[in-house]
Amino acid sequence: MNTSPQGKRGGFADTTEAALAAMAQSGDMAAFEELVRRTRNQVFAVAFRFVHNREDAWDISQEVFVKAYRSLKSFRGEAAFKTWLLRITANQCKDQLKKRRLVAVELDETQGTQESPSTDQAPAAAAAAAELREAIDKALAQLPVKHRTAFILREFEGLSYEEMAQAMGISLGTVMSRLHHARKKMRAALEKMGVTKE
After folding, report:
1. pLDDT for residue 147 is more than 90
2. Whole-angstrom distance, CA of residue 156 vs CA of residue 133
3. Is 126 exposed, middle or buried (0-12, 13-18, 19+ CB in 10 A)?
4. Torsions phi, psi of 180, nearest 5?
5. How sure is the predictor about 40, in pLDDT bands with cuts at 50, 70 and 90?
6. Maximal C-alpha separation, the chain
7. Are 182 and 151 in contact (CB under 8 A)?
8. Taking Cα atoms as reference points, which of 48, 53, 51, 22 lies closest to residue 35?
9. Neighbours of 87 (CB within 10 A)
10. How far apart are CA 26 and CA 108, in angstroms?
11. Closest to 188 (Cα-Cα) out of 135, 111, 133
């Protein structure tokens, strides 16, 4: 009978991600599965912000965790496990976007019609929220990938500048520069679409 904490669901509650990563590197599959459980929603959220398609985002997420598992030996703990994982996610998203351009998939025209407004909101408020979401997605899609990555990691995922630098593999100064340009381009794109900040 297995009485180890790893044998029980939630047995890793007090284990840090760094400790789990070290256990996973030693071949503990349960520890890796716990890391996946803790980070899968954030990985999916980042992927979805890039590709705006749920199926593609799930595919990317699965590929990210496969790559993470295969690359575990290269994780040295210099950055947080989550930061290391988001770097893999951003790179995987970039690869996916390159493939999209090569194949010239015509899915973007149907985006924005897939999510119906919440019935809890008044129709006018729901329509305005949906319109704003669509405008932000369109503006985001116009950014170069390097600026889009910076914007998503900061504005949607709430990473610090240091975490962004580690996730993107660039200097702190470059992070600030890319984020500045991303915000400036987003503001210009939104203003062009008639969306202005009050």
Report:
1. yes
2. 13
3. middle
4. -60, -50
5. very high
6. 65
7. yes
8. 22
9. 19
10. 43
11. 135
